[in-house]
Structure formats: structure tokens, C-alpha cells
Specification:
The complex is a heterotrimer. By secondary structure, chain A is α/β, with parallel strands linked by helices. Chain A contains 10 helices and 10 strands. In chain A, the strands form 2 sheets. A 6-stranded mixed β-sheet of chain A has the order 6-7-8-3-9-10, sandwiched between helices. In chain A, strands 2-1-4-5 form a 4-stranded antiparallel β-sheet, covered by helices on one side. Chain A starts with a strand and ends with a helix. In chain C, α6 links the parallel β6 and β7. Classes of the chains: A alpha/beta, B mainly alpha, C alpha/beta.
Chain lengths: 278, 265, 283
């Protein structure tokens, strides 16, 4: 049971003379309950990969399957609700008078028997009390609350796979933490893919990291493997600051330390390298 | 943004004598060209006007296909003009008959005269927008409206409104596309069902789009006020697009030639 | 130009400023008894969580909002005085969070020209200012580009150029990095740094990211409308409790630096980038 992208490629305007390759030979496997983080600079093909995975565009090469079923723009209607997508700035889609109505939009469209119950459950899952927030207007929520309500709007369809494009962009510390918790909650029922340029945000809890560069896969593996392979990562992919500090120190002292995300472990490594306080 | 979406009549930024000609002069020439089209009595006149246009397109270095694309937008109107002016009720001789209606030689001639006139007019205006940036057109409009300011016509404000509208077309288009995609991913059926169902399905999209537009308008108003915008009063312009003597010569000579052509042919 | 009350003291000064969005001071104040001054050549960071009143404070600087009580003065001028509005706004330029919602022009150079045009500056002088401003933000050569084809970071630098073209003494940057990717953010921060410390502008940088204070000379922390800290960034960065109370988060690189200090290394509190931290260890 997984969302599988196999050797997939995509070109905008394929065969029309001004073809633009956005993705080439990309593999991605997302298990239910897993968290895959996709890193890469702006324009590296991250958003295209998400669009491919949810059937918004069809792969020009390779294929995408959802639990063994072929995913394509034609199959999207049949598989709708199975793959949920949270776009950048999802709060720009709010339209209903109350948060509860807005979150229930998906279940209503899918013909759910009790759309409001689904909406309440989804709001609870992202940490918003339905009794407190359900009847407020979505346009007046704070940044973090609005983002979580928008995630709830997708979760309410009970997707098996949840894709999020830059879910923490523009939020303050509290908002980012709240979204991280919402993503963690979503993993209890779905496989999650987060596309971000903020490596530090989700790496610690991810079980898989993909790095895209110029449309192809520059790295694919566990977070630990990525940290040890960091030397071979393409320019423009920034590791979290703590890991970068360790590697940078390694260069200075001519050592070859194992990068880490944990400040305590990093402190131990740096202390050992710098030879104790002077 | 995909490079495939090039709108009809969208500015083609190349360098040519036509591009360099002041927008005001170009608009004057298009006006004279229009007048000539309505003055000519026969096909000789249209042929001459067509020749002038072909020469202008060649001079402008925009692809002829781009100029011709404007025609596709008005194909229906052109066809309608052709038929409305050409069809006769039960004529004696006919080329094509459709029930009691038919197209005879005289009708075909009248119809194609009017249809050709529209075609030439459309291609001429397309050439104007292909060779003149929106900013230049806006500036020229302001210049044209400026004498009306004492009558209470807010020339500067109108031009500013037009500029901002142009500026936000791509932004709004991108945002609308994103909202449409997102809501269809949440199961909204925007492209199926009966007409009423479709209208209902689009309501959430439109609410979201308008809400964002108002928010943008609000933000933009604050940003403009912060940059001291207080109407056209006392504003200057960096690109005082001056009519140079070459522009005046081109305008006056071209316009009188076109009018003369219209009167004589 | 008319002078405001009192002598022309240089700087953007807040004295006991309170502000409430509901008329008559009912309800909670968005800002409460704020006193601080932004001087030329200084980068003052204003940090706080969502809803702490940061943006309200920014908008009081140029008269977009008017204090409910207390006094705001820009080089001694009162932003609330209708006769001085445009004078004040040409001295205090603003850059906002959303790069798309503040660009007016259909091409880059037209947007930069917009401010000076409103001020009635002659055409050839506008040209000079536009060229200088675009060069200052590293966008020379982009004059004829359409803004929607720029990256978000470039759009934000364009907004800064447009502000600079008014030749302001002060720049108020209201969360300019919030919507940018890491490269865009680094570019904008470096630019803010240069504008204050090389070109002598007074720069007020509003942010929710504590890492941004590394480039600041002074930092003000807003916590639900109250100024809970005003002083040296070093002192703020050593006060975890104050940060947490204000809803701010010490970045993990800061946590690492603190651990190293505990083990006796001399790592400056401002060293909030891997380069700065390792540089400090190497010495």
C-alpha cells in the first residue's frame, strides 16, 4: 500500500517546439504513515512532482500508482479524495462564512453522509477546537490557525496520501510548530509528502528525504543517509544550520565528522574537534 | 506561467521603426486608417489599404502570424457580416441557396466588401497593440484625455487605473488558476453537470477570487499611499514620451495620404 | 516646508504611544505605551509573534495609522498633520510583506519611478534616481522586465528600490522576508544591513524570525502590544525565557551556540549562522 512514482518525467509544452523539462527520471515511494520530505531550490521541480503525484498533470514518461492503481488526470475523478493536496497559501481558497462550512466542502462534494462530523474530526486532528473555531469566519483567523484550517479542509476528505506544498511558509514560530503537529497527526491515517525549502522544519521526523535539483533526483534516502552524503549534494540545497555548522567545522579542522541535526550531539562533535575551550 | 499562453495582440518587444514611432502618432495613424476604410468606395480602395497594412507589418518585424491571429478572434463577426450583407431573398440567379435565402454575385461582392473592411480594421488595431507596450498606450490615452481635464475628466486617474489593471492581470490569472485547481482537488465539479450545477460549483471559486482581489486592492492602496500617491495633481512622469519631429512628420504625412487615398479610391 | 511642533530632532521617535483599532480606546490596545527612537545609520529590529502589534507599529511611522495617545515624530514632524503627510512619507519609505501587492508598475523601472513621480520630481532626475536605486539593490539590467516574471526575492528587492527612489532618510521594512525562500531572505537581509550601515539610512526591520536580529544594532521585542525588551541583540539572545514568553523561538543554531558557551567556548551570541559560529570557534 503506497503511492509510487516510477521513473517519472514531465515536460511542459511537450513536443511543441518550446518544450520545458521540469522533471526527469524521478522515483518516490510513500508508505501510509510515512513522511517524505522533498527538498530543493526554487524551480527544481518540487511542485511539479506534487502535481504529478496527485494526477493534476500526467507524467510524460514513467508512471504514478496509488495502492497499485494507475494515477492520471483521467483517473483523478475516480480516485478523488484518495490523494489530498494542500497548495501554497491554502488560506487563499477560503470562501465559506464559517470555518466548519469551509472544512466540510470536500466531504460535501464527495457525498459524505455526515460532512459536518468529518469536518469536526479534521479540525480536532489539526488542533483546532471545533466548538471554538468552527463558527468563526475563516477570513479572520491568525496565520497559523488559517493554515491549519486549510489543512483540515483537505484532511476532512480522509485522504490516504496527503501532499503539502511549503506548508510553513510565512508563519511565525508558534504557527510553524502548530503545522508540524498537524502534519504529525495526519500521519496516523495517511502517507505524507512535504515539499519545502526549509530543510530544518520536517527533517527530524521524516523517514525519507528526496533532493531535487534541476528536475532530477540528486538524492534519495533516509535523513541520516542524507546528512552523511551531504558533501555530494548539489549547490543550492541547504542543510539545516546545525548540520552545516558541523560540516563547515570539519572542513576547517580537516576532519570528517558525521553531520547531525541535534544541537547536543553537534556540540559534542564541535567540542571534540576544537580541542576543548581555550 | 507557460510560454504557450501568448494572448492575441500581446506586445512583441522587438526593435523596429514602427515600435519606435510614438504611441500617439500610431494611434492617430490607426484613426486615419479607419477613416480611410470608411471613405473608400470600392475594392481598389480596400486593396490599397491592404497594401499599406502589409507594408506596415513588414516594417514592424512582428511575425505575420501574430498579426493574423487577431482575425481568428473576430472570425464569427466577419462571417456574419459577409452573410448579413450578402444574402438575398429568393434572387433570380444564385451561387449558393439555403432555403429561400441565397448568395448571388452582387450579394457576395457587397458582403465581402464589408467583411474585408472589418478584417483590415482588426489587423490594423492588432498591429498597434503588437508594436506598442501597454504602458505607452496608457500614456498616450492620458495625453489624449488631458484636454478634457477642465471638464472634470480625471485623465491621470483613469490612466493609473488602467495601468494597475494591466499589472494585476497575470497575478490574478495565476491565483485564479490555483484556486480552481485546489477546489477541484477538493471534489468541486467545475466542468461537469448541468448549467445550473456548474454555476453553483463556480460560486465558491468566485467568492475566494473576489475576496483575494479586495485584499490585494486594500494592500495596494496602502502601498501606494505610502509612496505618496495622491491623484494626478502635481505628478510628473519619467517617460514624458515626447512627440519628436519624426513622429509629427509620420503622423501628418501618413494621415493625409490615407485620407486622400480614401477620398480618391 | 512647515516645521512640526518643537525643534527638529532627527529620527523617528515614539513617545508613550498607544494605539487601539476600536474607536474611543475600548477593547484591548494593539500597542501600549511604546517609547523608542530609530536613528539614521541604525538597523533596529522589531520582533514579535503574530498579532504582537509589529505591523501596527510600522504603520504609525508614516501616518498610515495615527496614535490614539502619545506622540510620533519624524525628524520633529507630526505624521498626523495633514499638511505634512507627503513630507513625512517621503522621509519614511515602507516595504510590505507580500511582494505582489505593492508593485504598481507594469515594468520594473515604472514601478521604481512611481514614488518620485508622485512627489513631482522632474523627469531626468527621476531617471537618475531609478538607475541609482536599481543599482543599489542589484537589479540593474532588469529595467524593462515585467514584475510577475521576477522571483519573490527579486520582487522584494524591487520594492526596496522603489522605496529608495523617494530618497528617504528612513526605511520601514514590514516582514520583508516572510514569504521568501532562503536565498531571497539572505539577499534582503544583506541589503537591509547595507542600507543602514553603508548608506546611512535608519532601517526598521519588522520580523518574526529571531535569526534576523543578528544584523541589527538594537532590537525591540513586542509581546501582545507591550514593548517587553529594547536593547542589544546579544542581551536578548541570552535570555531564553524572554524569547519564549514573547512567542519567539531560538533557532537550533542558537541552541548549539549556547551549549558551546556552556562548555567554555567564546561564541558571540550574534553568531547565528554556521559560518559565524565556526569562525568564532576557529579563532
Amino acid at each position: 500500500m503506497a503511492l509510487i512514482v516510477e521513473d517519472a518525467g514531465f515536460a511542459y509544452n511537450a513536443g511543441r517546439g518550446f518544450e520545458h523539462r521540469a522533471l526527469e527520471g524521478v522515483d518516490m515511494t510513500v508508505e501510509r504513515g510515512g513522511l517524505t520530505v522533498v527538498l530543493g531550490p526554487t524551480g527544481s521541480g518540487k511542485s511539479t512532482l506534487l502535481r504529478l503525484a496527485c494526477g493534476l498533470v500526467d507524467a510524460t514518461e514513467g508512471r504514478v500508482t496509488i495502492d497499485g492503481q494507475e494515477m492520471s488526470s483521467a483517473a483523478r475523478r475516480r480516485l478523488r479524495g484518495r490523494v489530498g493536496m494542500v497548495f501554497q497559501n491554502p488560506e487563499s481558497q477560503f470562501f465559506a462564512a464559517s470555518v466548519l462550512e469551509d472544512v466540510a466542502f470536500g466531504p460535501v462534494n464527495l457525498g459524505a453522509a455526515h460532512p459536518h462530523d468529518e469536518a469536526r474530526a479534521a479540525l480536532t486532528a489539526v488542533g483546532l477546537d471545533p466548538d471554538e473555531f468552527g463558527f468563526r469566519t475563516p477570513f479572520e483567523l491568525s496565520g497559523g490557525e488559517a493554515r491549519r484550517a486549510a489543512v483540515a479542509g483537505v484532511l476532512a476528505m480522509r485522504p490516504d496520501y496527503l501532499l503539502l506544498d511549503e506548508p510553513t511558509a510565512g508563519l511565525d514560530a508558534r504557527g510553524r510548530a502548530a503545522v508540524r503537529e498537524a502534519v504529525a497527526a495526519a500521519r496516523s491515517s495517511a502517507g505524507v509528502v512535504v515539499v519545502t525549502h526549509e530543510a530544518s522544519e520536517f527533517m527530524a521526523s521524516a523517514d525519507r528525504v528526496l533532493v531535487l535539483s534541476g528536475g532530477s533526483l540528486a538524492f534519495s534516502g533516509t535523513p541520516a543517509e542524507m546528512l552523511s552524503a551531504s558533501a555530494s549534494l548539489p549547490a543550492g540545497v541547504r542543510l539545516p544550520d546545525v548540520a552545516r555548522a558541523v560540516l563547515l567545522a570539519g572542513e576547517r579542522w580537516g576532519a570528517n565528522p558525521r553531520a547531525t541535526l541535534d544541537p547536543r550531539e553537534a556540540a559534542r562533535i564541535l567540542t571534540a574537534m576544537a580541542g576543548g575551550p581555550r | 506561467m507557460s510560454p504557450a499562453r501568448i494572448a492575441i495582440g500581446q506586445y512583441v518587444p522587438v526593435d523596429s521603426p514602427v515600435h519606435r514611432l510614438n504611441a500617439l502618432a500610431k494611434m492617430g495613424l490607426v484613426a486615419a486608417f479607419t477613416a480611410a476604410l470608411f471613405l473608400v468606395h470600392g475594392f481598389a480602395g480596400l486593396a490599397a489599404a491592404g497594401a499599406v497594412l502589409v507594408a506596415a507589418i513588414a516594417l514592424s518585424r512582428v511575425p505575420a502570424a501574430a498579426a493574423a491571429r487577431g482575425v481568428s478572434a473576430v472570425a464569427v463577426i466577419v462571417a456574419f457580416t459577409l452573410l448579413a450583407n450578402g444574402l438575398r431573398w429568393r434572387p433570380a440567379t444564385a451561387l449558393v441557396r439555403v432555403g429561400p435565402l441565397a448568395l448571388d454575385a452582387a450579394g457576395l461582392r457587397t458582403g465581402s466588401f464589408f467583411a474585408l473592411r472589418i478584417l483590415l480594421l482588426v489587423i490594423a488595431t492588432t498591429l498597434l497593440t503588437l508594436t506598442t507596450s501597454p504602458v505607452e498606450i496608457t500614456e498616450a490615452l492620458e495625453r489624449i484625455l488631458r484636454p478634457l481635464r477642465p471638464l472634470g475628466v480625471p485623465a491621470g486617474e483613469l490612466a493609473m487605473t488602467l495601468t494597475i489593471a494591466l499589472r494585476f492581470v497575470p497575478t490574478t490569472a495565476e491565483e485564479t488558476e490555483r484556486i480552481v485547481t485546489a477546489q477541484s482537488m477538493r471534489g468541486a465539479r467545475l466542468d461537469s453537470g448541468g448549467p445550473l450545477a456548474r454555476v453553483r460549483a463556480w460560486v465558491p471559486v468566485l467568492i475566494a477570487v473576489f475576496f483575494n482581489l479586495f485584499r490585494r486592492a486594500d494592500d495596494l492602496a496602502v502601498a501606494m499611499e505610502s509612496r505618496c500617491y495622491h491623484g494626478g495633481e502635481g505628478r510628473t512622469s519619467m517617460r514624458m514620451s515626447k512627440m519628436r519631429s519624426a513622429d509629427w512628420v509620420a503622423l501628418l504625412a501618413g494621415a493625409s495620404m490615407l485620407i486622400a487615398m480614401g477620398l480618391m479610391l | 516646508m512647515a516645521q512640526g511642533a518643537g525643534t527638529a530632532v532627527s529620527g523617528v521617535a515614539f513617545e508613550d504611544v498607544s494605539f487601539s483599532y476600536s474607536a474611543g480606546g475600548a477593547g484591548r490596545s494593539a500597542l501600549c505605551d511604546i517609547t523608542l527612537t530609530l536613528s539614521s545609520g541604525e538597523l533596529l529590529a522589531v520582533v514579535g509573534a503574530n498579532g504582537s502589534g509589529k505591523s501596527t507599529l510600522a504603520r504609525l511611522c508614516n501616518g498610515l495609522l495615527v496614535a490614539s495617545s502619545g506622540v510620533v515624530r519624524v525628524d520633529g514632524l507630526d505624521p498626523a498633520d495633514p499638511d505634512l503627510t507627503w513630507d513625512v512619507r517621503s522621509r519614511v519609505a515602507m516595504v510590505f510583506q507580500d511582494p505582489d501587492n505593492q508593485i504598481v508598475g507594469t515594468v520594473v523601472e515604472d514601478d521604481v519611478a512611481f514614488g518620485p513621480e508622485n512627489l513631482g520630481v522632474p523627469a531626468d532626475e527621476i531617471r537618475r534616481r531609478v538607475d541609482a536605486a536599481l543599482a543599489a539593490v542589484g537589479l540593474a539590467g532588469f529595467e524593462r522586465r515585467e514584475p510577475h516574471l521576477l522571483s519573490d526575492g527579486q520582487k522584494q528587492r524591487l520594492a526596496m528600490a522603489s522605496a529608495l527612489a523617494m530618497e528617504p532618510a528612513y526605511l520601514v521594512l514590514d516582514e520583508p522576508c516572510a514569504m521568501l525562500d532562503p536565498e531571497g531572505r539572505a539577499d534582503v537581509l544583506a541589503l537591509a544591513d547595507a542600507l543602514a550601515h553603508e548608506r546611512g539610512h535608519g532601517v526598521l526591520l519588522v520580523t518574526h524570525d529571531i535569526a534576523d536580529v543578528a544584523v541589527a544594532d538594537r532590537v525591540a521585542v513586542l509581546d501582545r502590544g507591550v514593548l517587553s525588551f529594547l536593547g542589544d541583540p546579544e542581551d536578548l539572545l541570552s535570555d531564553d525565557a524572554a524569547l519564549t514568553a514573547a512567542g519567539l523561538e531560538m533557532p537550533s543554531i542558537g541552541v548549539l551556540a549556547a551549549l558551546l558557551r556552556e562548555s567554555g567556548f567564546d561564541v558571540p551570541r550574534r553568531a547565528l549562522t554556521p559560518e559565524a559560529l565556526v569562525g568564532a570557534l576557529w579563532h
